[in-house]
Amino acid sequence: MKTFVVIGLGRFGSAVATELCSLGHEVLALDTDGEKIQKIADQVTHAVIGDARDADVLRALGVRNYDCAVVATGDDVGNSTLITLNLKEIGVHRVICKAQSHVHRKVLEKIGADRVVFPEHEMGLKLAQGLSSVNVINFIELSEDFGIVELDAPRGWQGKTLRELDVRVRHHVNVIAVRDAQGKLDIAPGGEYVVGKGSMLVVLGRSEDINRLHDL
């Protein structure tokens, strides 16, 4: 088991913190927003309201004893830079930061960040790589509202063409790929494509519309 501190509980930070904890690691989640702390409290080891821009707060929490710190406050260059400086100065072994631009990345690397990530950019690369292979990844969040998901074709869709199903109009999603029961992947299938038994659909749309497909 490793120990992690995740600073900044937006969508990215919250996802990192909860996933690390579900994988069996000890996770301290830190944010200045009490509502975010309350929301995640039951999904991590420790959830604390605190300002990581204050080095004394980090020292009081014993952050230097954690194996790795994740700075997920990438939307504010000044805040993430100051937090990263604090973490390195108090002796955190490994610091991973989220950046919003290449300039931001250079700044973070200059002050000692061990790794800098661009979640949206890396997600786009994974999407392209996944769609070019047979093993399409199960879910990709493109933004707060939109995503791409792989799901079993609803039983009522089997034996019908995409044109007959009129998925875009009826369900407000786009079928961007279909993988048949034999594992063959058809990217951007046309309207005459017949959805077969055991097919997996890769659909793009709003998260709320995608979720409704699971109930069909």
From TrEMBL:
GO terms for biological process: potassium ion transport. Residues 134-216 form the RCK C-terminal domain. GO terms for molecular function: monoatomic cation transmembrane transporter activity. Pfam families: TrkA_C, TrkA_N. Residues 1-117 form the RCK N-terminal domain. PROSITE patterns: RCK_C, RCK_N. InterPro entries: NAD(P)-bd_dom_sf, RCK_C, RCK_C_sf, RCK_N, Trk_Ktr_HKT_K-transport. This is TrkA family potassium uptake protein. It comes from Candidatus Flavonifractor merdigallinarum.
